[in-house]
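During the practical work, I worked with a single protein chain and the C-alpha cells that describe its fold, as given directly below.
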Amino acid sequence: MRTETEVRLRQARRWYAALRRTSNEAFLPLYFDESRYLVLCGGGGSGKSIFAGRKVLERVTTERGHRWLVCRKVARTLRDSCFAQLRGQIAEHYPGSGAKINVSDMRIVFPNGSEILFAGLDDVEKLKSIYDITGIWIEEASEITEQEFNQLDIRLRTQFDQYLQMILTFNPISITHWLKRRFFDTQDERATTHRSTYRDNRFLTAEAVRTLEAFKDTDPYYYQVYCLGEWGVTGKTVFDGQAVSERLSRIGEPVKRGFWTFAEDGGRESPHQSASPTASPRGSRWTEDAGGPVLIFREPEEGRPYVIGGDTSGEGSDWFVAQVLDNITGEQVAVLRHQYDEDTYAEQVFCLGAYYNEALVGIEANFSTFPIKKLEQLGYRNQYVRELPDTYTGAIRKAFGFRTNAATRPVIVGELVEAMREGINLVNDRTTLEEMLTFVRNEKLRAEAEPGAHDDCVMALAIAWHIRPQQRMTVQTKAPEGVSRWSEDMWDDYYAADAETREYLRQKWGEPRR
C-alpha cells in the first residue's frame, strides 16, 4: 500500500507530465518562478500570453483565496483578448475546476474561493472597487505608463499565504520605453525577465510560421521587432533602422570587460612602454569586471594604427564615452562608457590609448578641456590637433581636442551616416547600436537623440571616424632606421605640423616613441 508521500509524488509527476505536454519548453521553468515581477517580452506568436494565462489558472485552481486582476490599458479590449483566452483555457485544461464564468461582468469564480477579475486602466470606477489583490497580469504592458504600473504595484496586498506576483506581457515596441529601462537595462533582484519569439512556440501551425517568416522579405523591420522581438523605435531614424536592428540580432559578446586601476607614477612615463601590445599600460593594472565600463571586442595587434573619439558628459547629465576604431578597417574594437568624473575618464582614455599602440585620441572640447589637459599632464603625446583662427589677428593656431559646433556637428554626423550605410557590421557594441536606433530627426530636421534617449556613443563614434586622417592607415611592422627616440623638439615640430607634414616626419624619424 502506497504511503501518502508516495501518492503525492505520483500525482505531482502526472501533473508535471501533463504540463510539459501542453506547454512550451521555454516557459516551463517560469511556472515555478516566485519573483514579484515576471516580465515577459517577446515577438508575436511566441506564446507568452498563453503561458501567462495558464500560470494564472494554475495558481487560482490550486491556491485558495486568490483575487487575481487581469488588466489592459483600455477595458473594452479585454473581452476579446484575455477574457476569451482564459475561458478557452479553462475549457481545454481545467474542465473539472468548477469555474463559474460571469460573462457580463467578466468575472471568473472558483469553488476554493479564488477569483479572477478584469479591468481596464481607463475604467477608474471599477478599479476603485477592486481591493485585496493577490496577483496581477498586465497584457500589452507597453501600452501603460510607469506611473500606472506603480499604482497597480501598490494594490498587491501584503498579507497572503502564497507569493505575490505581477506578470507583464508585451512586444518590445520602443527601445526608449520605461519597461526596458526599468527591467532590462538594470538588474532588479525582485524581477525575472524572459525573451521569446515564435520559434519558441511549438504549437504554431506551419501556416502561421510561414506567415510570420514572410515578413523577412515584405517588411524586414516588422519582422525584426514584432516577430523576433528586437526593441523597436518610434521616430524617423537617421541611420538605417532595419540594418541596425539586423546587426543587433547578430552581435556577440566582448572578449573581455573591466577597467584599468590607474597608477599615475607609472602613467607619467611613456604610455607606449607595454611589454607587448596586449599587456596593460605600464603602471596600471587591468581588472576583469562583468559590469566594468571598458568593453574590448578585439585585442590590439602589434604595429596596427588605432584612433579614439571621445564625447564628454556635458553638464553632467550624460555619459563619458570613448570609441576605439581600427584605423585601417574602421572596425569598432573597444568602447569606454561610464558616468564618473573627468579625471577618471581621462585616466581610462590614457590607458586605452596606450593599450591600442598609442592611438590617436580626439576628445570633445566643448564643455571642458580638463580631460585633454589631463592627458597632456600624464605625458600622452598623440592627441588630435584642430586648427583655430585667431579672432584678432586672423592667424591660425592649433589646439588639442575636437570642437563640436553648428558647423562641425552636421559634418561628422553626415560622415558617420555615410560610413554606416555599408559599414554597420563594423559596430560591435550593443549600446552604440541601440543609440543609433533612437538617433532621429526632430521637427527642425536636426539629428539628435529622441526624448529620453542618449547620443553620447553615436557622437563619440562620429568624432572617431572624423579624426582618422590624422592617424596613419598602414601597419608598422618594423620601426624604420633612424632615430630610436624622439627629442622634445621633435615632438614640438610634430604637433605644430599639419597632417601631410606629420606623415613625412613619421617616415623620416620613425614611429613616435619616447
